[in-house]
Amino acid sequence: MPRFLHTSDWHIGRLFQNVSLLDDQLHVLKQIKSYAKEHGVDALVVAGDIYDRSVPPAETVDALSAFLADFTAELSIPVILISGNHDSAKRLRFGAQYMSGSGLHILGDILNVATPVTLETDSGPVHFYGIPYHDPVEVREAYGCDVKNYDEAHTYLARLAEQARTPGIPAVLISHCFIDGAEGCDSERQLSLGGADRVSYQPLQEFDYVALGHLHGPQYKGADHIRYSGSPLKYSFSEHRQQKGVILVELTDDGVIWEHLELIPKRDLRVLEGTLAELMEQGRRDPRQDDYILARLTDTQDLLEPMSQLRQVYPNTLELERTNFVISRGSQLVADVSSRRSEDQVFKDFFRQVMGGELTDEQNELLFEVITEARAGMEEQG
Amino acid sequence: MPRFLHTSDWHIGRLFQNVSLLDDQLHVLKQIKSYAKEHGVDALVVAGDIYDRSVPPAETVDALSAFLADFTAELSIPVILISGNHDSAKRLRFGAQYMSGSGLHILGDILNVATPVTLETDSGPVHFYGIPYHDPVEVREAYGCDVKNYDEAHTYLARLAEQARTPGIPAVLISHCFIDGAEGCDSERQLSLGGADRVSYQPLQEFDYVALGHLHGPQYKGADHIRYSGSPLKYSFSEHRQQKGVILVELTDDGVIWEHLELIPKRDLRVLEGTLAELMEQGRRDPRQDDYILARLTDTQDLLEPMSQLRQVYPNTLELERTNFVISRGSQLVADVSSRRSEDQVFKDFFRQVMGGELTDEQNELLFEVITEARAGMEEQG
């Protein structure tokens, strides 16, 4: 029966606390390739947010190009991808018409939602319809229709795809959107303020499978076959308990069967809790010292440069939190440091609320410098 | 016999004095398409500087993608292009492996100079070798060789292509470089200071034809078959006397035959000389009022807002020069205005000499504002 891998939100080129994740990303992409080969799938589906930014660094573009070329050359398995809110649809789809003949299908134009990619499988053809990320204005302009919000816009496009279906041919819908009621986490960029970005799952129900992207935690919403694969890596500490992977989907005569295939990161994101002494001791015996660490220190007394100490055993310690630190010095600054959320995170949340977007890389760097300086100053005083 | 069109330096997305030239560019690209159809060529060759910037605006990327898709879909004529010094090779070549099967050959990797694109023509196969723009460091790193300058680097790559040739199969070399002794103009970006960017033509002689890009004026250098097509549009007033076009190349048993096919711009770049009154009079009867104008005013007396007056008849007047303006007021500022080169040009030359590069769009805009303000101030005083 027709089988494919469903993944999304690669965010190639993403920085995590100013550390490039490209190596980590290529590490899990290799595993995706192995799974594709092992399970002899008919396609690899990537549901948007291919890159982390509309203008990704040139090295990132090159790395993705090399991965994809290698994937299709070696496996002869086509790749179908749509653009997400982090991608520039126009940049991503350059030359798309030339590529589709060779197995790379880039669906980045909402005007083409009713034109499926047809894959010939051993069990007959399968149609893949793609709804690239869009906002309501784009849909109004492209179709001259009167859709007022995200939900109406998405429903409009989903209906166009639905109406274009050929009876008897299985149809998969690929979309990058926020289904109402699904669960977000810290590493997704809001599409719109106050939940106005939510769309309903009901118009998607009739497709044989719906491959969603945008949310980084694997989950389904509304029905078992309307599913987010989640990102292949943890992109925030709020995801530290998630099991990342790809979804192996099989379309059978009795409905869809799916399986979550685990991806093993090169460096995991972990949250460790304990006293500094305990974590130092644990770190010395830890076979995964290179993991990205958020350390929650339970010490109640002052500590001398805890970050530098921890980094001796966990070099990729990225955040420190003090959970039991009693404010005894009366300094408001010290109190802020002791809060459970890092300053970094507090500021980013604030910025997101007020500005409705994420910090740029430059702003991130600046914030990082300011916080580092402030911390250094406080440690000197402390 | 095998025939192809040779063009280069499209610089899609270029601004001329802060005016977008995209419409003008699409206008001449259409003519190139007509020529390709009319002459039934086997290929369209574009010798670099496809875009004007390494990160072109998304609309520009979309416009080029649409043109190329339309070109090959309608004519079934393959396109071969290499990256120039204005392009980001890594961005341009994304997905190149997927496109070559469908007729778009993007040669953007110096590691592939010995791998030709093979075109099957009615008279047999032809090989096209591409040398994308590169600096010596890139060649040293890619090949671990010891080339000290632009000339040695280019010669190294040209020899690799030469050695890869198959006896009996005609070979065309495409390169983006500055051949020593050729003539530049104001709209090319220097590759290196003080002429260190020049390369020799001798290592290219054995190819059946050498399709060059970088210089914007059509010309040959060293031998008749080593040729710059020039840009399809005038990109500076220094080019106002050039006849822009594309080259129709035919490879015959007795050598190469070429023909210059003229391109008619939507709006020409012209330099007009005369008194303000004369130019105003001429403008009223001019069928090409929309052309981009540099006006050289021969008036000897003060003029009241000559730019605003001229723009009533030539709305795209972009520069004013005063050629006979006698400095009678004793003001150094007035003297500067009367020089034959515009302030804009003087500053840009200065910047190029000192910084070795062109102004960014933002800097250009700022310069434009400053000059406009200064001019307004002087006109008030005058």
Automatic annotation (TrEMBL), chains A, B:
<feature type="domain" description="Calcineurin-like phosphoesterase">
    <location>
        <begin position="3"/>
        <end position="218"/>
    </location>
</feature>
<keyword id="KW-0540">Nuclease</keyword>
<dbReference type="GO" id="GO:0008408">
    <property type="term" value="F:3'-5' exonuclease activity"/>
</dbReference>
<dbReference type="InterPro" id="IPR004593">
    <property type="entry name" value="SbcD"/>
</dbReference>
<dbReference type="InterPro" id="IPR026843">
    <property type="entry name" value="SbcD_C"/>
</dbReference>
<keyword id="KW-0255">Endonuclease</keyword>
<dbReference type="GO" id="GO:0006310">
    <property type="term" value="P:DNA recombination"/>
</dbReference>
<comment type="subunit">
    <text>Heterodimer of SbcC and SbcD.</text>
</comment>
<keyword id="KW-0378">Hydrolase</keyword>
<comment type="function">
    <text>SbcCD cleaves DNA hairpin structures. These structures can inhibit DNA replication and are intermediates in certain DNA recombination reactions. The complex acts as a 3'-&gt;5' double strand exonuclease that can open hairpins. It also has a 5' single-strand endonuclease activity.</text>
</comment>
<protein>
    <recommendedName>
        <fullName>Nuclease SbcCD subunit D</fullName>
    </recommendedName>
</protein>
<dbReference type="InterPro" id="IPR029052">
    <property type="entry name" value="Metallo-depent_PP-like"/>
</dbReference>
<feature type="domain" description="Nuclease SbcCD subunit D C-terminal">
    <location>
        <begin position="265"/>
        <end position="354"/>
    </location>
</feature>
<keyword id="KW-0235">DNA replication</keyword>
<dbReference type="Pfam" id="PF00149">
    <property type="entry name" value="Metallophos"/>
</dbReference>
<dbReference type="InterPro" id="IPR004843">
    <property type="entry name" value="Calcineurin-like_PHP"/>
</dbReference>
<keyword id="KW-0269">Exonuclease</keyword>
<comment type="similarity">
    <text>Belongs to the SbcD family.</text>
</comment>
<dbReference type="Pfam" id="PF12320">
    <property type="entry name" value="SbcD_C"/>
</dbReference>
<dbReference type="InterPro" id="IPR041796">
    <property type="entry name" value="Mre11_N"/>
</dbReference>
<dbReference type="InterPro" id="IPR050535">
    <property type="entry name" value="DNA_Repair-Maintenance_Comp"/>
</dbReference>
<keyword id="KW-0233">DNA recombination</keyword>
<dbReference type="GO" id="GO:0004519">
    <property type="term" value="F:endonuclease activity"/>
</dbReference>
<dbReference type="GO" id="GO:0006260">
    <property type="term" value="P:DNA replication"/>
</dbReference>
